[in-house]
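FORM 12-B: Structure-to-Sequence Request
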């Protein structure tokens, strides 16, 4: 209990006697009392000759206020200790049984509830497996790790499979691109060769062809050849 009492005393000393809150920009008067700078200035706002201390009523002869930076740093520490202590108190309150207001130290395996010693008395949780919370936590961590390990392995296998399929897809795309370039090159060579072998003149072939244009070389050669992409064409007329 000595530490809480010391913290309470420190907090009391860190408060301003005027606003009763933590000192902000603390200053010290001639009589040695500490105030917030704004609080003491407001107390002396309408005074001209004598400036009484709000605590001891000592009459200061002038508005001389000494800044106390060391006290300001101590106030910051006291404020931090107060916040930390409040958080710790709230955490401790969360671990109390709402029904019996005792510390929750037991765990019921059947109902999966955290209990205090009073909760285990009949008829509540009678015949249930109850163990200390730390022991129960260790037991359930081990069970959870047994479930997690195979799941991690399955995830790793799936990731490897996905990576393998992505590599295969990339290889197929590269092969397709190579085949496309190869076919384009062969087509250009074939087209250039067919243009070179064609006669440079065009003729008119009579007959009823419905006006459809045909290539002369496709009629003369014994085997049909691919139609070349060139500007030389023969027109048929009736």
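FORM 12-B RESPONSE
SEQUENCE OUT:
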């Amino acid at each position: 209990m000595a530490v809480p009492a010391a913290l309470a005393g420190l907090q009391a000393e860190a408060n301003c006697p005027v606003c009763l809150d933590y000192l902000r920009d603390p200053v010290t008067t001639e009589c040695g009392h500490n105030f917030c700078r704004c609080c003491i200035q407001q107390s002396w706002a309408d005074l001209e000759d004598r400036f009484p201390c709000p605590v001891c009523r000592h009459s200061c002869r002038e508005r001389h206020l000494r800044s106390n930076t060391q006290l300001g740093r101590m106030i910051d520490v006291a404020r931090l200790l107060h916040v930390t202590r409040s958080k710790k108190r709230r955490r401790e309150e969360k671990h109390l049984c709402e029904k019996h207001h005792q510390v929750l130290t037991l765990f019921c395996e059947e109902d999966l509830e955290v209990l205090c010693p009073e909760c285990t008395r009949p008829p509540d949780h009678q015949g249930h497996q109850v163990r200390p919370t730390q022991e129960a936590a260790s037991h359930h961590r081990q069970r959870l790790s047994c479930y997690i390990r195979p799941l991690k392995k399955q995830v790793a296998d799936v990731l490897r499979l996905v990576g393998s399929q992505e590599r295969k897809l990339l290889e197929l795309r590269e092969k397709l691109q190579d085949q496309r370039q190869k076919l384009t090159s062969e087509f250009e060579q074939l087209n250039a060769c067919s243009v070179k072998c064609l006669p440079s003149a065009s003729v008119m072939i009579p007959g009823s062809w419905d006006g459809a244009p045909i290539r002369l070389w496709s009629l003369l050669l014994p085997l049909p050849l691919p139609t070349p992409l060139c500007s030389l064409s023969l027109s048929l007329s009736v």
